[in-house]
Amino acid sequence: MPRPGFVLEVDERTPPLIVHEGEGYRMQKFPLGTRVIYPPDALPGLRDLGAQIRHALLHPVGDSKPLPELLFAGMKLTIAVDDISLPLPPMVTPDIRQRILEHVIELAARAGVEDLEIVVATALHRRMTAEEIRRMVGERVYRSFWPKALYNLDAEDTANMTIVGQTDQGETVQMHTRSATSDLIVYVNINLVAMDGGWKSTAIGLAGYESLKHHHNVNTMLHSKSYMDPRPGHSAINDSTTRMGHVLRDKGVKIFQIESTLNSETFPSQLSFLNKREWEWSAKDQAVMMAAKKGNDLAPPRVRREFFRRIEAPYKVTGINAGEVEEVHRRTLENLHRQQLVEVRGQADIAIFGIPYVGPYNVNSILNPILVHCLGLGYLFNMYRNQPIVREGGVSILYHPVPWEFHTIHHPSYIDFFEEVLADTTDPKEIEARYEERYARDPWYVHLYRTSHAYHGVHPFYMWYWGAHGRDHSGDVIFVGGEPKSVARLGYRRADSLRDALEMAKDTVGSSPKITYFHAPPIMIADVR
Amino acid sequence: MGARSELREMARGFRWGRRPMVPRSAEPYAEEAFDEGFPTDWARTEVGIAARQTILNGVMHPLVRSQVSMRVYGLDNLADVRGPVLFYSNHSSHLDATLIMSTLPDRFQRKTAVGAARDYFFDVWWRQAFTALVYGAFPIDRAKGGRGSIDKARELVRAGWSIVVFPEGTRSMDGHMQRFRHGSSRLALELNIGLVPIAIVGAFQAMPKGKWWPREGRPVVTVRYGRPLYPDQGETHQQLSLRMQHAVSLLFDEDRTTWWASLQHAERDETPSLLGSPGPAWRRAWEGSRPVPRRGRPRAWE
Amino acid sequence: MTTLALEFFRSAPRYVGARTIGAKAPGLIAGPLAPIRLVNRKDPEPPKGRPGWARVRPLLSGICGSDIATISGRTSFYFSPLVSLPFVPGHEVIGELLDDCEDLNAGTRVVLSSVLACAARGEDPPCPNCAKGATNRCDRVTVGHLKPGLQTGYCSETSGGWARQMIAHRSQLWAVPEGMDDRSALLLEPFADAIHAALRANPQPGDSVLIVGAGTVGILTLLALKLLAQPGHVIVAAKHQRQRAAARMAGADEVVHPPHAAKAVRRHTSAVKLTPERGQDFLLGGVDIAIESVGSKGALDLALRTTKAGGKVVMSGIPGPGADLTPLWFRELELVGAYTTGLESLPDGTEKPTFQLAIELASALPVLADMVGATYPLDRWREALDHAMSAGKLGTFKVAFAPQD
Fold it and tell me: Which residue of A has its CA nearest to C394?
């Protein structure tokens, strides 16, 4: 019987607890009275996944016909797939997308479809490599479609991007031309966090800068409290995306949405202690933890990076829903909340987050300082509903070494952003006003985005905005263990240990603050009342 | 943080050498799963079986034979029995499990597990290891109605293992048989397996509760196997338990008199009850400890 | 019939083991070195033909410092004729009567005053102490129609609290008031002991007091002192954070770490502090009354060395060996023992049994129930003992068995 998530209060019987810090972790003894939010136990996966997928395709939800009835010979069919930013860590093959794709393509083949293209919905993310795509879609699909009919979206290819329309708030809706003009788009999604799925899949995944700038901006971010809470009125970005989605729908773009949810079995069996509550560690778990930690601490950085890069999550699928976008997404969110929601009473003066080694934008790559900011003050901070874990003006303490390190191929615009823009100012509004346009239109970045494997020139800006709400809400941000120069460039403070960080935090929250530690990964959402 | 202080924090925080604790606020969510405390399946692997048989046949059996005069009867009842069965007997001594395990025919001995009280045999690691190894034992939860123990027993029987249980639940204090608990009859009914009754006569006299070594003089101990019982269609567990008790009483009667006489007694409903008369404690203990008569020629010095 | 019980049995190797390596590896004392076993014991029967006995079903039974000391082999051989082996430990009991017992009906919840005095042993006429109502001073605890045993919990015939069934005599039973929950009732016995200890100190208004130790005994003694007397400045020396917090809440004027206790007393009483070449610092001057509730050599030394000349030192728990009695002689101190409960003379001239006083005062103390930090079923006794042995460090006050679970 999987147990629900709960809030632990650290007492004399509590052992030291795991805190992730990039490519490593530490055992931290927390002060007595610290509250620690624990995620629910992993839900069991669906039995007979193949049958479940088939069932979902044949019995769609919402106003939608079963998939076989939507397929016919002579049609123009586009299948769009979530890119490498999901899931995190990458899941053990076969990826759920592979399994769903194989079912969909089988049905398409039987219906006599010939004009079929599969597009990886990267929006302004980097192009996936052939190897990465092959791992995601499987050998059969890869060999049948790559490279002509299976490709990454090129959002800067103006010839192949159309303006579909405008929302009533003046937001441009731009989309991949082929997708927009297909008889049907089948979207294959993985809903890892509450922000994914729904209209985001098509209205953002298949869009370009002209659309994105309407919601990927500071104002929208500051009014998304939080963007992991897609209820109307809570997340400005979700509201905007929904408006755009409705434009697509009203303009006749037909979408058959397939969404999947995963359980929280994040770490493989060799690291199973990371999935368990510390006081439930057996002697073997403790031994494995210490050996792994020692090995990790002593390993050279390259070995360490490779070890973490190879981690594959043994995720199990907890639900598959298909059909009309909004109805599908409603059910997806139900499944997701069942696995991830934890009730928390009251806010804290200090929130502590341990930043893991991987986020959506550094799979097979490097977590540079800007991405650390995004993962910490963006994603982790926003894993809440109703209220942030920390009170307004409180202190956010984050654990990460924040090395001054960038991946030159994946993140070229980030390097310039860090060296030029952040050296000047760290204020998101200032940055948006003075620098965004230039980076977004810079032909060199566009070239790298289109032909290399680089994130779009504007992407570091989005990363900066992503943490705008967290940054704005916190009175102070302190990194434990961060490299002084990089942390300073980000505009934050740093300390060597938690004790020092708490000492520094006294200036903001006094000497007996309420502390809450968000014990993630595994991923969860704190429902703060 | 230095390696030594890290280690010290781990040792203190995780209470090495002491029992693990659950933080107060996590108690409502603590797992109440039936924990075997110490897994015993290792003792039922090929290696474990080989080791066990060596110990039983090479050490325990000769040792017991040197301390008591052991007689075994009724093994021919097992000649046609196939598949897992539930062996059960009266329980009055620590000798009982050894007597049964070391007298079983080889094909049963290698695939039989003894059910042993969790609170007694599985509380410290070395007792657990010893019991698991020598008797292929699995834990029975005496205290809480033993839900989890039934699960384990079921799992073993389904895997083809026979099991030995002592339905009295504990050793007799005065040599008389106590009322049978219903766990074994319930299990036999559920899995529809045979029950082999065993009467162990003289063990209480030789090594009663409280003693860890047989008394001097090579007392006589008899192990009598009976004909297997099979659960009837529609039988309740109470009825089956009574039948089980009766079967052992029959074997005791046979031991005291003869097989023919015991059958006649049974026909006439005259099998002496082993539960003993409800009299004063000294009478029961007196009756229960009456020495078992030696068979055969009396020795010169008796 | 038999029921589940924890039994303390004689085991020379365990005794030796516990005394030698027990200090270094305390985990072993709750493990293989514990002379305790879980057995199906024959149900205890009231002595034949003797009236006033009844069977009791323990609902909660506490683990006391003296139980831990007995199991770790740290108690004096003095006790050996005062117990009968094997016995079922457990003298802090709140249970349910299974039989009618004189004026108490079956089903009544009762707490046990564990001393097996003349009344329970059928000694008639009673010894002079029992006749005066001071049953804790009974001289006949080894005779009569029961096996030797100073208390239930040390007698092989009565069983004890750490079992599913025990027997008790009417003279030992006090009915639990309606509306008092089991956990508060469990604390009644230690609370009564604490009241007795506080009154043995005979505190005068304005007396300065040092209480050494803020475990269950220390805190209850502090509460008793505050309720029954008007002490002046009260200092509590406590090792662990949660104990210090509890002492503050219970009304201590000053709460300190034990190494700083002498300094604290010195400051308050303007005494002269002297440092011997070996041993603890001591004062010429000090508190009027010191109450030692830890039971260790260091604690008794502290108490003796920080009490003013002519002052009183009360020992409320089984003492550990080895304390230096020089200050007792040199400063003309009164060393007073406080053992369980008896009859108290109150300031207004009346006399009341300590237990009755405890029951009356307990209704005003909701905090008592919170002192029970954890309960364990009998088959998890090793965890229970392990927890009780580190209770202070783990922030727990009282650990108890819930034998019916």
Answer: A12
The domain made up of A6-40+340-528 is a member of CATH 3.90.226.30: yes
Q: Which phi-psi region, left, alpha or beta, contains residue A127 (left: φ > 0; alpha: ψ -120 to 50)?
A: beta
Which residues in chain B have their CB less than 8 angstroms from residue A29's CB?
9, 13
Q: Which residue among C4, C27, C42 places its CB closest to the CB of B18? A: C27
> For residue range B14-35, what is the model confidence (pLDDT) as tens digits?
988 888 889 999 988 887 644 5
- What CA–CA distance (Å, rounded) separates A415 from C349? 89
- Indicate the helix (H) or strand (E) that contains A395: strand A390-399
Single out the residue of C117, C44, C126 nearest to residue C87, CA to CA: C44
Query: CA-CA distances (angstroms) from residue A261 to A88, A203, C47, C396?
Result: 13, 20, 69, 43
Residues ≥6 apart with Cβ < 8 Å to A341: A5, A40, A385, A524, A525, A527
Min Cα–Cα distance to chain C from A279, Å: 14
- Specify the residue for token string 């308050």: C268
Distance from CA of C371 to the nearest CA of A (A): 15
Cα(B142)–Cα(A438) distance, rounded to whole angstroms?
Answer: 77
- Which strand (E) or helix (H) includes residue A138? none
Tokens of A136: 């995601």
Residue type, C48: K
In one-letter notation, the amino acid at residue A423 is A
A37 by DSSP, 3-state: which?
strand
pTM equals 0.80
Task: Give C-chain residues touching B14 at CB under 8 angstroms.
Answer: none
Which DSSP category does A195 fall into? Answer: T
CA A18/CA A6 separation, integer angstroms: 16
User: B10 to chain A: which residues are within 8 Å by CB?
Assistant: 15-16, 27, 286, 290
SS3 content of chain B, % helix, strand, coil (to 5): 45, 15, 40
Domains of chain B: 40-288 (3.40.1130.10)
Residues of each domain in chain A carrying CATH 3.90.226.30: 6-40+340-528
Please give the helix or strand (H or E) that residue B283 lies within, else none.
Answer: helix B281-288
* Residue B279 backbone dihedrals phi, psi, to 5 degrees: -115, -165
- What CATH number does the domain located at A52-181+199-262 have? 3.40.50.11440
Q: What is the pLDDT of residues B222-274, one digit of tens each?
A: 999 998 988 888 888 888 998 999 999 989 888 888 878 888 888 888 878 77
B chain contacts of residue A280, beta-carbon cutoff 8 Å: 31
Q: Min CA distance, A82 vs chain C (Å)?
A: 50
Q: Where are the alpha helices (DSSP H) in A325-467?
A: 325-340, 369-373, 412-416, 422-424, 428-441, 443-451, 459-466
Q: Provide the pLDDT for residue B34.
A: 47
Distance CA C185, CA C366 (A): 11
